[in-house]
Amino acid sequence: MAGALTFFLPCGFTQAMQLYALSLGNPWLSALALGLFVLGTLPALLGIGIFFTSIKGSVRVWATLGAGAIALALSIQTAQNGLLLLSAWPTWGETTTAIQTEETQTIRMKVTPYGSYDPDVFTVKKNIPVVWEIDRADRVGCADSLILSAFDIFMPLQKGVNTITFTPDRTGTFTFSCSMGMVRGTLIVED
């Protein structure tokens, strides 16, 4: 039961554990994994609870308001990341146009050691095959995968240069991101 309650925590780390538990394909192993996760996080959560019950007066009011503001901000960010993964949230940045040859168009992007995309906005042409070269650094966190759901691209990125080839068959502005939706960019497809 305690493992099931972690479902309500809006945290990428918790959601990753939930996906891991689901991927095990065994309800007993899944329950064990989430139960151990609960036991591992219990000291920190108890510490926070004890802290808030031990403070008194106006400090408690301000601490509670501060915690509420942080929770609200994190909730908004979580909702934004969810909308981003559904390609329903815009991203902005300086546009990089694809390098075109007679048969293809190439875009090059780096995933930095800090887990960001550089550049993060690309413009390509519709119905011309795209060769997307992604140079992934070491130790990048959730940016070690790339999702461009509008074109059914879900790719784990290995250290070094990774190549994705696809043909955009419709125009529009499409969001790509890491698996958690926290690192993101935009692909603009024009006629």
From TrEMBL:
InterPro entries: Cupredoxin (IPR008972), EfeO_Cupredoxin (IPR028096), UreH-like_TM_dom (IPR039447). Pfam families: Cupredoxin_1, DsbD_2. It comes from Candidatus Uhrbacteria bacterium GW2011_GWF2_46_218. Keywords: Membrane, Transmembrane, Transmembrane helix. Residues 84-189 form the EfeO-type cupredoxin-like domain. This is Heavy metal transport/detoxification protein. Residues 1-72 form the Urease accessory protein UreH-like transmembrane domain. It comes from the Bacteria. The chain crosses the membrane at residues 31-52, 59-76.
